[in-house]
Amino acid sequence: VLVASVACTGISAAVIRRQRSGVRTKFKVALRPLLDDLQGVWEDDVGNEISISGSQAMFSDGSGAWPIEREDNSDDGLRLRGTLFIGTAEGPKWQFPNGLSRSWVRPSPVAPEDTEW
Are residues 83 and 77 in contact, defined by beta-carbon separation less than 8 angstroms? Predict the structure, then answer.
């Protein structure tokens, strides 16, 4: 039955295996530009540094790599570390289930004269 389903829908067997294993690595076309814009280094409003590379986020708190995942039942939502993306590419904002949110900004470049300070 699975083979017939795959043949009818055009979904690859690898995608089916990832879906069954709970790993969601395939992003909808609408999410790809957003994920591309989030690449690089950010700071949140409590002082964490976040580095985004591909669909992985590394936080400065030492918690390791976290996957950025597509929100279930959504074509344009992202989830990261228990939060839902509610911002924009220019002003990322992530909301926790309890309503608390964290905003991200790009770190300011350090001026050469400030490095000696």
Answer: no
Q: 3-class DSSP state for residue 43?
A: strand
pLDDT in tens, 23-56: 444 555 567 889 999 999 999 999 999 999 999 9
Give the span between the Cα atoms of 102 and 84, in whole angstroms. 10
Tell me the β-bridge partners of 79: 69, 84
Question: Which of 56, 60, 54 has its CA nearest to residue 107?
Answer: 60
Q: Hey, what are 21's tokens? A: 């294993």
* Element holding 79 (H helix, E strand): strand 78-80
pTM of the model as a whole:
0.68
